[in-house]
Design brief:
The protein is of the alpha+beta class. It is built from two helices and three strands.
Length: about 80
């Protein structure tokens, strides 16, 4: 797959694999508009901050292959 920041991290490769798996699956267990974020991505905190501001589901992919789904919450934002 395509490179991110010159070299794919372990979690990036797993994220690509998971996206491919979902594209080929008959049943999709990830919400629409979900964003996949590798946990070992350089600048992970900043990427998460931007993605959380989009109010979209986020799937964090860890280097060991585990994933965590973070759903948007309908709550007032703090300034």
């Amino acid at each position: 797959m395509g490179a991110i920041a010159g070299r794919n991290t372990d979690a990036t490769e797993l994220a690509f694999d998971r996206i491919t798996e979902l594209m080929l699956a008959d049943e999709i267990d990830i919400p629409n508009r979900a964003v996949f974020v590798p946990a070992d991505l350089p600048g992970f905190g900043e990427v998460m901050k931007r993605r959380l501001a989009e109010d979209r589901p986020i799937v964090v992919i860890y280097p060991d292959g585990t994933e965590r789904l973070i759903q948007p919450v309908d709550a007032p934002r703090l300034s």
